[in-house]
Input
Amino acid sequence: MQRVDPSPSLFADLYQLTMAQALWQSGTTAKATFSLYFREHLPGRAFYVFAGLHEALEHLQRFSFETRDIEYLGSTGLFDSEFMDYLLSLRFTGRVRAMPEGAIVFAGEPVIEVSAPMIEAQIPETFLVNSVNANTLLASKAARIVHAAHGRNVYDFAARRTHGLDAADIFARVSYMVGFDGTSNLTAGARHGIPVVGTMAHSFVSAFEDETDAYRAYARSFPAASTLLVDTYDTLNGTLRAIQVAREMRAAGHELNAIRLDSGNLAELSMECRALLNRNGFGGVRILASGALDEYSIEELLRVCAPIDGFGVGTKAGVSHDAPWADSVYKVVAYDGRPVMKLSDRKETMPGSKQVYRYLSRSYRPLRDVMAAAGEARPAVCARPMLTEVMRNGEITVDLPDLGELKSRFAAEFAKLDMRYKKLHNPDAYEVAISDDLSGLHAGTAARLRRRSGASIGESLPERA
Amino acid sequence: MQRVDPSPSLFADLYQLTMAQALWQSGTTAKATFSLYFREHLPGRAFYVFAGLHEALEHLQRFSFETRDIEYLGSTGLFDSEFMDYLLSLRFTGRVRAMPEGAIVFAGEPVIEVSAPMIEAQIPETFLVNSVNANTLLASKAARIVHAAHGRNVYDFAARRTHGLDAADIFARVSYMVGFDGTSNLTAGARHGIPVVGTMAHSFVSAFEDETDAYRAYARSFPAASTLLVDTYDTLNGTLRAIQVAREMRAAGHELNAIRLDSGNLAELSMECRALLNRNGFGGVRILASGALDEYSIEELLRVCAPIDGFGVGTKAGVSHDAPWADSVYKVVAYDGRPVMKLSDRKETMPGSKQVYRYLSRSYRPLRDVMAAAGEARPAVCARPMLTEVMRNGEITVDLPDLGELKSRFAAEFAKLDMRYKKLHNPDAYEVAISDDLSGLHAGTAARLRRRSGASIGESLPERA
Output
């Protein structure tokens, strides 16, 4: 097989293409509806922050195989040449309904519904699931950290720890969307317009024979934006040296911005450093902390009132360390007008196109969601339909809000979500009910499929026929 | 700040560039040596599989900022224009010594040592750590799965679950290197020449009113390469229908390749399906299993002799679910000819350029490693020096083996590693000793730095001076 660098449309499992050929050759090409959703909540969590919609829509809108993709597929020996000609002309022409980027969503609820000719809807599965899964997983983790930080600044320092460069970009973007204040990641800063932040590394301090000289050199280069890392040798001594340099800066008309702690007992050290800074007239110098922080350690630090003004989170946050995967799936729910579902053990799907209604209180706080069949009448009371059309005939039909707007929207929506669903430990489950119509459809479809597939091994056994 | 899509060289934390400016402006530009290593083993594990070297070397060889990168940096308002001119001409001109790609390595051992003018060595840190960390983490996970599968086929099905598309590519490549038999990921197959494999999805079955018709359609399109997914409705009934189609295929001169189980009790179902297949004359039809498998569940399945011929692993493997992050670091160990180290609480570094000697038994089995100072005499007994020069004056000096060669090498090396280090639970710790010379250097450097930085808060306190 030849080696090529394929187009983004070829980011797919092989079976997407083999199934496509079998569908095409058997004429199984009617319209299908697929639903992308998260089967369950992550352990100890009660909501997801849906993200990745924009990437998904752009993928669908641009979907097109290149000649080099087809040549590679040809080299596998699996594909028919007429089918490969068909692939070369294939575009996504379907309709997409989706929740908004940044929406707070719950397990089982469709976040994206794709309706298109079967093959067009099937092939993008691998990309859509990867992208929505990674974005949502990392956004959900970051939202917990923002919640735990109670208004202190939080910065993305994860660029070296994420699983590859894409993930670093995703984490920087979605963490900013859910409330982080900036990122250390220059690539993400450049691409998305996120404020970039930074301090210094231990290697910088080590390159100078004297720690104080290292601080002086940095302060000379960045008199208005210096954060000095004080733990290379000894945190308290480092802080004293930082104070000395802060005095020199002040004499020259500048103020030291912050010091950073990166090891040891951050609660105790931050209190000692705060006291040293205050006693020496540097009450305005901020204290930043880093070092494998997550929502749990931040909660602990704030519980004991550690005087930390900002947290740099990387290692654990950037991989969602306590929940690094989510069971997101993309399942066909209707084919050629008939509702379909799988009955697999513990993996049953809910048939048919759907709407999710979010019931809101008088102050617009989410009370509960109801999953309904798409055609049902809208509830009489105040309930927001969460899925709206975002693509028609393969073209995006809405203005996708920019990152700044998404950030404001998320802050407003997250503030409305009751605290009991946001608790870091044992949050309450948010109620997601199923409408009577949808329950009926589910029962009817399951019964029909069980009849057809044979209720037990005793029925219509081919080998005993 | 403007938005641009920057060059790969700008994948860096902001502080790499601010430190560079302070180093440049203060004339702190002598040669430095940095060491990339893993601080500790992952929980319950005794070795790493080092991967990502080739990507790292290619990054260094191509390192160069583009005008759009510099314009973006300029837009942050942090950088001096003379310094930005310098950045535009900056290339990596240093020397790199490294362990081979695919080497089995242990915590604390340098896997890459970079010696270059300070700024050139510092800026690539973020990229090098991200890349080596992600590659090594995923390779190490995949090697455990290969070990657990005891010669059964293992396939990468992780494309939809990794954190972004890069990670899917990395997992496909490194899992193949350590012994997987193929990947479902077409992009990775196309780029790296990895065999691509695939079955079918539940959606394919659902698109047909009758499960048997779905199997027939697939078998007609792929008479020589059909794997039928049997659990959409009921696994045993699905298997009977697959047998019926296998009979039809045989009548037409073809053989069904395999069935796939994706839910339920895989041990029991595989035995029942195996019996059904055998009883009907299809002893040659293989059974594949998938569904959140990892080394632990594979070990359990094989312990009870589940007749599974191949495992498709995705969700948990592709994110290294039980150890999604590793503490890899890139630390300066020498600057301008003097050894340096940090003394931070629990994050001490080992100073100076190093060599790692791997002592081998008469049958070339690794016995123990010794970390030595780079200049020490080579041991008299059979000990392989693990770090060799791979780049000089910024140019790669060795032929980087292709993936097929890496795969064979890894298989040979992994077979030599004693079973007690490979156990999935409570493996023995492999001995990594420190040479006397290196111990002496460490003690001397620590003492010198402690004296300089002040042994305690009571000494040379600036505010009490």
Remarks:
- DSSP finds 16 helices and 19 strands in chain A.
- Chain A has two domains: 8-138+325-453, 149-319.
- The first strand of chain A starts at residue 31 and ends at 38.
